[in-house]
Design goal:
Length: 207
């Protein structure tokens, strides 16, 4: 959590300086523009949770960072492919329904070059940013909290609850329904992590 705060603020300050140099009136500098620099800074600060989590795990626990990928210490394309076959159609339907039935988003007057830059940065950095969150919360935090339990069931419960509470807290939502949403999402993703074999109880032997 400390690393996430430092990295996020560090990149926000860097983004603010770049926007000042470019003469942009961004949200970081007290203006009202959501600039590509701000977008990149926001995503990169969270994306770096991926190497940061691996470093912390190696430094404090002596466990290879690559083990955060899965029990095989490698990215498993077959698991990713099967998940994509299930999630992609469901997510496409969900986004279509949300777009049609959801409230209209406020209009924003973006320069064309900003739209292209925002689109490209999202395609490039958003997957890494999402992975950073997963490695941080469902990876490192899950394992550390689970190591406090003496049995597999206690370890699983601690890992799920603590990592989900941290995930909820990190979003700084004031709406109780949003907090419930983030906590429930954290629990669901933690259980997916456990059931797909990304985490296993042998972590407790490294305490």
């Amino acid at each position: 959590m400390g690393g996430m705060v430092v990295l996020s603020f560090g990149f926000a300050i860097l983004g603010m300086l770049i926007d000042l140099i470019l003469g942009r009136d961004s949200l970081l500098t007290g203006g009202d523009e959501y600039t590509p620099v701000l977008h990149a800074a926001t995503l990169l600060g969270l994306a770096l949770l991926l190497p940061w989590s691996m470093l912390i795990q190696r430094w404090l626990y002596g466990v290879r960072g690559a083990s955060l990928h899965s029990v095989l210490s490698a990215f498993r394309m077959e698991v990713f492919g099967r998940a994509l076959l299930v999630i992609l159609p469901l997510w496409t339907v969900y986004m279509a329904v949300l777009t049609v039935m959801g409230p209209a988003a406020p209009e924003a007057d973006y320069p064309f070059r900003d739209l292209v830059a925002l689109f490209a940065l999202t395609l490039l950095l958003a997957p890494i940013q999402s992975a950073g969150e997963e490695y941080g919360f469902r990876g490192l935090a899950f394992r550390v909290a689970a190591s406090w339990g003496r049995g597999p069931r206690t370890a699983l419960a601690l890992g799920v609850v603590v990592s989900s509470l941290l995930f909820m807290t990190a979003h700084l939502a004031l709406d109780p329904w949003l907090n419930l949403y983030y906590f429930t999402m954290g629990v669901a993703l933690s259980l997916v992590t456990w059931r797909t074999g990304v985490w296993r109880s042998r972590w407790s032997s490294t305490r």
